[in-house]
Amino acid sequence: MNWRHYAILFAIGLSVPSAVASFQSLPGYMDADYYFAGGLQLAGGHGFSEPYLWNYLDDPAGLPHPSHTYWMPLASIVSALGMWLTGQATYAAGRLPFILLSACVPLLTTALAFRVSRQTRLALVSGLVSIFSLYYAPFMPVPDNYALFMLLGAAFLLLAPLEQKWVPLVLGALAGLLTLARSDGLLWLGLAGLTVMWKSAYKSDGIKNTFRQWFGMILPAGLLVMAGYLLTMGFWHVRTLDLFGSLLAPGGGRLLWLQNYNQTFIYPPESLTRASFLQAGWDLALQNRVRAFSDNFGNALAAQGGIFLFPFILIGLWQLRRELRTKIAVTGWLILFAVMTILFPFAGSRGSFFHAGAAFQPYWWVAAPVGLDAVLTWARRRGQFQDRNAPYFLQGVLVLLAVFMTAYLVNLRVIADGWARDDAIYQSVEAELLDNGIRPGEVVIVRNPPGYFIASGRPSISLPFGDESTILAVAERYGARYLVLEDGGTFDAIRDLYDDPQGNPAFVYLGEVNEAKLYRIELAR
To answer: Cis omega (within 30 of 0) on the bond before 501?
Structure first.
């Protein structure tokens, strides 16, 4: 490998997310809306504070609310960095760092692949496949954690086998950054500890250490891991301790007791308890986890496995089974799969497994060309593919398939489906509210509060899971006087309110904009 290879990969890696971004005028979904809105707040000098609530799991006292008490802040910090550097509080500025980070993913993937295989051809194929990343491609340019997780995961695996004394400190720091990006990044702190233990089991000559020798090695290395972790993540734990009296925010723990996904938006959050979970019955809990297993396995096969890459990834991992990096990646992925299936089945199947799995994705791209090469070697021993150009042809086909599949999926998800079509409705809704004389500072209840804030600058809170009385309770507590109900974004318990907008005198119908119905909330005096 030389600098020209990396320069070419960077150029192609920059052009693909830039092309995708040209069709994305808004973040497009609530996670990215939230991270970008958090970046706007930071860039505007408002700190870690938000004039919107997207859930009620931490029992918020009111608006403004401390930000990132559920989703973590790193993506917002990176988005704000783009705005600070350009001096513009725009979406183009906020997503600029993510486009640049996406262009760096093939560089680290290629470096990791070359370190593993020592073959330039295989390393370049891994880098090219990481650029044309199929299901991940539509999300790489937006303010989210995909590129961050891929880069941090690749860096962790690249450094993990090194014997230098500073490596545990850096692994801990990377685990801290992964946790600062997503709460499930905490898994990587455990993987850093496992890495230290695995590396300490044997001497450099292959002789197994005694328990005393092993323990004497892992103790200082483990302390370095924790020091690195606290170096990057410690300040956030201090903030959470100051806000909630604990190292972790309380909202995430309540997810353990969900009986359906919509309860993520439940109000009041105290109704989500272990007792309510047990009362719903183990049959429902088992059904939910079986469904999550099916969804997560499908995700592993299609999105993470890349469909046609999947068998080559498995073969490649078998070929690399003695690699420490393989042990780390496979163990971490299996733990993640179990956690997102058993403990958090709704979050896992609704995107968290796809999100968190991005950190392992560079290693799967490393394994796929190795697997294909192993298949080719097997076939050649049986008299097939004897032409000396066969490896180049087959690896080229692999890359071309990735290109065509990525183009198809980007067209399907971004272009044909209309990226951020739903979020764009909010601009029309806000114009209608202003036409009705509603002041900009008045709070609105809406399906996607950070998205609405981006479109309008108006404080907003989430549509709570429950019936009409639940909406009134939320409106009373948080001072909301207006409600927006969107077709397809309404819970079953309030579907009648959408279908018959004048059927409840507590909700005064104001009109409809693009199938979104607007109401003034009349609270009892």
So the answer is: no
Report the C-alpha dihedral over residues 18, 137, 423, 517, rounded to 10 degrees: 150
Residue type, 178: L
Any alpha helices (H) in 22-90, and if so which ranges?
Answer: 30-43, 74-86
CA atoms within 13 A on the CB side of 158: 20
Is 26 in the same domain as 130? Answer: yes
Among 144, 167, 192, residue at a domain's last position = 144
Residue 488 maps to which CATH number?
A: 3.40.120
Claim to verify: residue 358 and residue 484 sit in the same structural domain: no
Model confidence pLDDT, tens digit, residues 53-101: 999 999 999 999 999 999 999 999 999 999 999 999 999 999 999 999 9
What CA–CA distance (Å, rounded) separates 313 from 306?
Answer: 9
The pTM for the full model equals 0.95
Note whether 371 and 437 are same-domain residues: no
Beta partners for residue 508, in sequence order: 520
Whether residue 156 contacts residue 232, with contact meaning beta carbons closer than 8 Å, is answered with no
How confident is the prediction for the chain on average, in pLDDT? 94
Separation of alpha carbons 495 and 493, rounded Å:
6
Final residue of a structural domain among 119, 144, 169 = 144
Decide if pLDDT at 395 tops 90. yes
User: Which stretches of 262-319 are DSSP H helices?
Assistant: 274-280, 282-299, 310-319
- The answer to whether position 409 is within a domain reads no
List the domain range (segments joined by +) for residue 345: 282-384
